[in-house]
Amino acid sequence: MNMRKRFSRIVAGIMLLGLAGCDDTKRHAESIGVIGGADAPTAVWLSWSAWSQNFLDCIVPVVSIAPQSTIEDARDYLEKVVLNPPGMNGIDGLGPIKVELAYGRNLVVPLKEFYATNVPVRTVLTEIAERDGAKVAWNPRRRVVSFLCKGKLNQDEWRKILEDVGEIICPSNPVKDTSTERSNP
Asked: What pTM, to 2 d.p., does this model score?
């Protein structure tokens, strides 16, 4: 067997071994190439970057918040079931997700009932935050979801809490712009 055929078989074998170790995760090819001489290839390369779904866009199969649940109950449910499904490394497969509460009030009111199927994480977090009159944030570096309520905190305390929460997903009680509305006489 000549050297070119042997080299081609070795390259093909290495590629097959490499593909056998791959998972079913969708990947986008960045480059594919062949370096070759006049009569045969001398090297073949494949490279790609792993595609990972954005945490906030991951689909939650079922979420159910019972009537009279508190935000503490919702936090435990989110952390133990929804965002960290059993047998998975977080809903996005990139590691465990923690849920924190940062509150500036003493009274925590019960949430309204919420039930949904096949909804994005963003929707689940937004619905719970709105039911609690809070903000919700996602910090991908720390892998923490935070529910925040200013309550009786002063500006400095509130600013300190907001410093490391990451992206605010849902502001509570958005201010409605009534400047363009007209009243009927």
From this structure: 0.62
